[in-house]
Amino acid sequence: METFLLFLVVGVVAQSVDGALGMAYGVISSSVLLAFGVPPAMASASVHGAEVFTTAASAGSHVAHRNVDWRLLVPLAIAGVIGGCLGAYVLAGIDGDVIKPFIIAYLAGMGVYILWRAGHDIAPRYIRSWMVAPLGLVGGFLDAIGGGGWGPTVSSTLVGAGQEPRRAIGTVNTAEFFLTVAISATFVWALLSGHWAEAGALENHAAAIGGLVVGGLVAAPFAGVITKRVPRRILTYAVGGLLLLVAGFQGLQLAGVFA
């Protein structure tokens, strides 16, 4: 019960940040699971299994509050699913920490750029729909590999490219539902095909996964209204600042400062 309550709180905090700023549920949840000694592939599968439920609720909230750019959603979701399935299959067989330094450097650089945009109050600009497909492919792959790369990679890039923060966050959160379903299905396939040798131990972490699901569901319905009501410039500052925090935390993890 203590494990369930702990991860319920983690789920509430992680989803509150993710729903409002378009990132951090995977990063926060995966980091806590890894700190408890859960292997990377198992942590990623657990988080994505929980996100099937939380992203559905969060997406519904963003749709209801009209935060979704439907023109960008379809190519982003399709490409994200392809990249996520590929990443899940790869992660089930190898250690994904090899590419982490490059992800951290990208997130830090994008965080600085977004803060610069916010400081100069640069107005949003039009983004062509075909441009988001490569972004979705890379974001989906990194999400499955790193357990939380979708939001930081995709939301930050869209905001950095000039998309209105509210629309970027709402669109990315909605597309994430399709991504998490696909990644979770790929992990199940890897389990059934015998490609994922460690999957049998998932039952040992059922309480943690349950806590993440319940905590996420509690916070997810408020995502749309928060994103809609926060002023654009403040939201841009928040996205940039959170990116730097995420990059800094993952850098400390990589250096061995945190488990």
Determine the N-to-C terminus distance. 24 Å
Uncertain stretches of 5 or more adjacent residues = none
Q: Percent range for helical residues?
A: over 70%
Oligomer category: single chain
Estimated share of beta-strand residues: under 5%
Number of domains: 1
Total number of beta strands: 0
Rg of Cα set: 17 Å
Number of helices: 11
How would you describe the shape?
globular
**Structural classification:** mainly alpha
Order of helices and strands, N to C? HHHHHHHHHHH
Mean pLDDT: 80
The biggest beta sheet is recorded as: none
Describe the structure.
The chain is an all-alpha fold. It has one domain (2-254). The chain is built from 11 helices and no strands. It has helices spanning 2-21, 25-35, 40-64, 70-91, 100-119, 132-146, 150-161, 165-192, 206-219, 223-229, 232-254. Helix 5 (100-119) runs antiparallel to helix 11 (232-254) and helix 6 packs antiparallel against helix 7 (150-161). The longest helix is centred in the C-terminal third of the chain and has 28 residues, at 165-192. The mean pLDDT is 80.
List the helices and strands and how they pair.
Blueprint: H1 2-21, H2 25-35, H3 40-64, H4 70-91, H5 100-119, H6 132-146, H7 150-161, H8 165-192, H9 206-219, H10 223-229, H11 232-254
Main attributes of the structure:
single chain, mainly alpha, 0% strand, 259 residues, globular, 11 helices
Concise overview:
With 259 residues, the chain is mainly alpha-helical. It is built from eleven helices and no strands. The model has no long low-confidence stretch (mean pLDDT 80).
